[in-house]
Specification:
globular; 12 helices; mainly alpha
Length: 263
């Protein structure tokens, strides 16, 4: 069987494994990657709108397009990456690993299929949520979010880049899961790096310079999201964050191949 045919076969199998009413895409992705960002975004918007309209003595800063989808970037992308990492790590040992070795001789086939399935789902969810959030905010909360415009250059950039960022982040997750091989540890490493290391590194000597090289922050910056710092290469250059995903994915496939030879 050709490599492409095997990849397609693995992708179909992965869709079945992750889907269904009891699969991760329903039990984890739906509440964490879809409902959570919507709930947080609209709850914050409702509180801000209330303060903005209840008294002229309270001043609430208007939110512009470039800050409107922050929680989508945070929840949708990271939950999807964690699901991809856990799915990959859980299949790297035991009977699942033996079955994959027999069905797919090439070590990269299943991780690539997993990246396609998880990344495709994350990209679709990210695109839909960007449309929903940027449509609802200015109409439902005009006092604070009236400046949000889906058809502006920034809005159109979000439409194009948030799905790319979500897809690439799943590649990072698959790579980390393949390298570590333990679902809980892989998830902890991803979350710890994204939310602890990348934010706290600013406190280290030359921390603001180091922060400019952090992969997830560069991914967010590449979408056009406003950040507290500005990497010198601009939003377009920040999209080279995808190279980190490719490197981690290649390293993970190399680790899988090594484990197969050692087994």
């Amino acid at each position: 069987m050709t490599a492409v045919a095997q990849l397609w076969r693995a992708a179909r199998a992965e869709s079945v494994r992750l889907g269904g009413l009891r699969g991760p895409l329903v039990l984890a992705a739906l509440p964490g990657a879809v409902l959570a960002p919507l709930a947080v975004t609209f709850a914050i918007a409702a509180v801000a709108e209330r303060f903005a309209t209840m008294s002229s003595g309270i001043r609430v800063t208007s939110v512009q397009t470039s800050n409107s989808v922050y929680w989508v970037l945070t929840f949708t992308v990271m939950v999807s990456a964690v699901i991809a990492a856990a799915a990959q790590a859980s299949s790297a040992r035991g009977a699942a690993a033996d079955l994959e070795r027999c069905l797919f001789p090439r070590a990269w086939t299943v991780p690539a299929a997993r990246w396609l399935v998880c990344g495709g789902w994350a990209a679709t969810a990210g695109l839909v949520l960007v449309i929903v959030v940027m449509t609802v905010l200015p109409s439902a909360f005009p006092a604070v979010y009236g400046g949000v415009d889906l058809t502006s250059s920034q809005g159109l950039r979000f439409l194009a880049t948030v799905p790319v960022y979500a897809f690439v982040a799943c590649g990072v997750g698959v790579g980390v899961g393949a390298l570590i091989g333990q679902p809980v540890v892989a998830a902890a490493v991803l979350l710890g790096w994204a939310f602890l290391v990348e934010n706290s590194i600013a406190l280290a000597p030359k921390g603001y310079t180091l922060q400019g090289y952090m992969p997830f922050l560069n991914g967010q910056f590449g979408t056009g999201q406003e950040l507290a710092f500005t990497p010198p290469w601009g939003p377009g250059g920040a999209l080279l964050y995808a190279a980190v995903a490719a490197a981690l994915f290649a390293a993970g496939c190399g680790a899988l191949a090594w484990r197969r030879r050692a087994a």
